[in-house]
Amino acid sequence: MNDILPIVLSILAAVVVIGALIPVLIKTRRNITRYPDTRDANDPAVRSGGGTAVDDSTGTIERGAPGGAGTDVVDTTTVPDDAAGLETIPVETPLPVAGRLTRLRERLVRSNNIMGKGLLALLSSDRIDESVWDEVEETLLLADLGTEPTMQLVDALRERVKVLGTRTPEHVKAMLREELIKLVDPTMDRSLNVERHADKPAVMMVVGVNGVGKTTTVGKLARVLVAEDKDVLLGAADTFRAAAAEQLATWGQRVGVPTVKSDIDGADPASVAYEAVKAGIEQEVDVVMIDTAGRLQNKVGLMDELGKVKRVVEKLAEVDEVLLVLDATTGQNGLNQARVFSEVVNITGIVLTKLDGTAKGGIVVAIQRALGVPVKLVGLGEGADDLAPFDTESFVDALLN
Q1: DSSP for 301-346, written as a single string
Q2: Residues 6+ apart with CB under 8 A from 98
Q3: I need a surface site. Which of 15, 179, 279, 375 has the fewest CB within 10 A?
Q4: Which residue from 344, 338, 337, 340 is spatially nearest to 372, judged by alpha carbons?
Q5: Structural domains of the chain ordered from first start
Q6: What sign does the CA torsion over 21, 26, 27, 28 have?
Q7: How far is C-alpha 9 from the chain's CA centre?
Q8: Is the dihedral of CA 293, 294, 300, 303 positive or negative?
Q9: What is the pTM of this model?
Q10: What is the per-residue DSSP string for 143-184?
């Protein structure tokens, strides 16, 4: 009898433990979404655990070891949620570009017209003497126009005021509009190079220091391209900032475009960029957008890193567009950043973010003069659709209204 009692107690204990585990196992199973593995089982990369790892939770393509093979894509937008099973992130329909431009113009009028109104008031004075011209010059410099463009504009205005004689507010406004448009330069090509080649996608690199809204800008620009019926793929090559890849993947999910990212913290950015372009070629997308790291603490290291990313990508396809993202609120400090990046890669255009948070609209002119490249896009808010192509006349009209 004494020999049987321990056995009975052990059996009872096992039954209790199993009974407690059953609900946990059921709940765990409900939170797992499985998809068929369509990879070739004979692929050495698959057998060894390398190649492409499909992230069921985000619908993104995760690359394993650098140079791994495979192009599996899971078309899903589900993200696990511990409290509610599976939460679905709906694919959004971005606003048409035309409607977005109208809304941004209205915001620019509200936030950026201090410079224009100040100039209008000064130049509409009954008598314009040297003290007034000094104030005009100061207003332009405070608006971050830059010394050389300021002198150029003041000289042009002086000459026109002499010829004009009697000045009505309407005449002054028309004069200012013409001169500011010349200064912003409507002859610059502000179109994005995003047309697919015969057998390869257009490739765009987006660069800029951390904190300017670079990854967010990539996501917003993806929305602009999707609104123009482009087939887009994102590459998360900023592998050093925590959660940068997940942030980019979330933007991609919102507009239904895939993201190639590494499942290894601190992975080689060039390898991720290479895999993104490779996937873009295989999937025949129109545009591959590559988000890059923005560390500026070590200029030499940054040059080496970005230069390597571009060289590696160009083994597969030409880099058609290199956009530099700058924060408009940094003013002239943004010019220093711009010069550093222009030494690293061939900048083809500027994205000016947070233009709604500053009255210093002159930074547009200063940056274009410093780099010799156009401002192609402007951001005027935190909303998903608050990014639009830059239009010279609309910008100047907003300054003066």
Answers
A1: HHHHHHHHHHHHHTTTS-EEEEEEEEEGGGTTHHHHHHHHHHHHS-
A2: none
A3: 15
A4: 338
A5: 99-184 (1.20.120.140), 202-392 (3.40.50.300)
A6: positive
A7: 64
A8: positive
A9: 0.75
A10: TT--HHHHHHHHHHHHHHHHHH-S--HHHHHHHHHHHHHHHH
- Whats the size of the chain, residue-wise? 401
3-class DSSP state of 234 = strand
List the structure tokens of 271: 């390898």
Residue with tokens 């010394």: 147
Per-residue pLDDT 10s for the chain (401 aa) are 556 665 656 666 665 556 555 443 433 332 322 223 323 333 333 333 333 333 333 444 454 433 333 333 323 232 333 333 334 567 776 666 666 666 666 666 655 556 777 888 888 887 888 888 998 888 888 888 888 889 999 999 888 888 876 677 788 888 888 998 999 999 999 999 999 999 999 999 999 887 788 899 999 999 989 988 999 999 999 888 778 899 999 999 988 899 999 888 788 899 999 999 999 999 999 999 999 987 654 566 767 888 899 999 999 999 999 999 988 877 767 777 788 888 878 899 999 888 765 556 788 888 888 888 999 998 877 777 788 888 888 888 877 77
- Amino acid at residue number 376: K
| Residues 64/50, Cβ–Cβ less than 8 Å | yes
**Pairing mode, strands 60-63 and 52-55:** antiparallel
Report how many helices (DSSP H) and strands (DSSP E) the chain contains, helices first.
14, 12
Which residues fall within 8 angstroms of residue 378, CB to CB, at 6 or more apart?
Answer: 104, 108, 351, 352, 353, 355, 387, 388, 390, 395
Token pair in block for residue 257: 């475009």
> What ranges in 185-298 are assigned the alpha helix state H?
214-227, 244-255, 269-282
Helix, strand, coil percent content, the chain, rounded in steps of 5: 50, 15, 35
Distance CA 240, CA 267 (A): 8
Residue type, 395: F
